[in-house]
Amino acid sequence: MNNLMKGLFLGSAAGLVVISGAQAADLPLKAKAVEYVRVCSMYGAGFYYIPGTDTCIKLGGYARVDFGVNTNAPLFFGNTATQAGAQNRYSNAFTWRSRADLTIDTRTATDYGVVRTYFDGGFTWTSGGYGGVRVGGTAYDASPAGASGNGAVVGGQLGVYFSFIQFAGFTVGKAVSQFTAPWGNYPGMNISDALVGGGGAFSGVNQLTYTAEFGNGVSAAISAQDPSAYYQAGIFNLGVASPGRTPIWTGVPPFFGPVFLPPVMLGYGLSAYGGTTMPDFVGQVRVDQAWGLVQASVAAHHNNPAYYGGVETTGGPANKWGWAGQLALTIRNLPTGPGDVINISGVYTHGATRYNIQDMTAQAGGSTIYSGTDSIGFGFAPDSVYAPNGDLQLVTTWGMRGGYVHNWSPHWSSSIFGAYASIRYTDGAKAYMCGVSIPFALLGGLTTCNPDYNIAQVGANVRWTPVKNLTFTTEAAYSMLDQKFAGVANVPNNWAVGKPEGNYTVKDQDMWSVMFRAQRTW
């Protein structure tokens, strides 16, 4: 009996052990801890660690809507191109643009310092630009650059503004030019890319740069950058006669109005830049402290002309190096109020025109603008020109720009801004341009032939920020072309802009524009 009871007890115990083991096997394993996104405070507000890495990332961007009155172009500085320059029924009254922008900033601490990558890209949709003009059954493609199809309206455009890597003092990729002042093309305004008087390329230029930090806000940089996108204003071959065909006119902001498409440049021969064989070399020294900032920058720009004739056996002038210098100043802590600031810069160029006359524009070439039905003005701003069997003649310019920003309250601010630039040719260039290569549009009653000219610009705006990072702006601007030709120009029929053949008084021109902007930044 005892043995029987002992056997039953041991068997029950063994069964319980087996059952307990089976139940234990069915129990869930302990879950791994969830890795939450952590704040990365070492690089400023908005940075977070990418989960599972030691890299910090910050996302940003904005949504923007611009409405320009009397603009007729995505660049909102007056009616200055194609039908806009004609200022008649073919001129549109406004331009509308919407943009969404995204920025991605990553940083990783290493033994060599911080490794940084940065991207800024956006999608832009523009409407209200030039439409095609149909006269006598002939369709003229009057669309601006970037439009698709005859008479199309500018539509969506995807832009990469910045894309670069920074490591151990080096910057490689598409970044702000080292020549550019910290406030770029915008010393106090919003109007896009049309203010003369200083280098810009604020949306980035391909470059290889080394920057040295000396402490106390003092730094220096040396850079090699690609000139082909923003810094080649053109070289005119004055010795090549224009083909004599009816021109199509297109806009070249910020100059004033319609120009002949290459190869015709208002009769001033052919646009004759050779290939890009050398980068631009840029140096910069900056002192940035609480009271403000001082920056000095210089650039060397290579002028590589094509040939005297249409083929390589005709030879050509020797290439030349041009240069540009700029001094920029920012003054903070003004007695007029907290956050008020003054930005001002001055620039001088010799054979490097785009470091003054808006490097952001696609071409420099030449331009004209009509005022009503009886007057016309001319301006040309290449890097250099050359005559048959002659040397390269570098064009000289100088200019300045500035702005003052005042904060009336945390929600209201305003600014005033202005700019001035002067373009000058050598005596040798003038002698040939006025004696032999005079444009056919100017044949006739000229009393003064002088391709020199000046540009003056002034404007103001008011900004309202009802809540943080949401701003509404109203801005007005005025521009004047002070050109040095005088007399009467005999202009042929220009169907593309609706201008009849006739005599037009050559005189100074002016224009105005107004822009409204809404922007939400995040």
From TrEMBL:
Q: Name one GO biological process term.
A: monoatomic ion transport
Q: Which InterPro entries match?
A: Porin_alphabac (IPR003684)
Q: Which residues form the signal peptide?
A: 1-24
- Residue ranges that the Swiss-Prot or TrEMBL entry lists as coiled coil: none
**Coiled coil is among the record's keywords:** no
> Could you tell me the keywords of this UniProt record?
Cell outer membrane, Ion transport, Membrane, Porin, Signal, Transmembrane, Transmembrane beta strand, Transport
Name a Pfam family for this protein.
Porin_2
GO MF entry, a single one: porin activity
Which compartments does it reside in? Cell outer membrane
User: What membrane topology is annotated for this entry?
Assistant: Multi-pass membrane protein
Q: Which family does it belong to?
A: Belongs to the alphaproteobacteria porin family.
For domains, the record's comment is: Consists of 16-stranded beta-barrel sheets, with large surface-exposed loops, that form a transmembrane pore at the center of each barrel. The pore is partially ocluded by a peptide loop that folds into the pore lumen.
Function in brief:
Forms passive diffusion pores that allow small molecular weight hydrophilic materials across the outer membrane.
Protein name (record): Porin
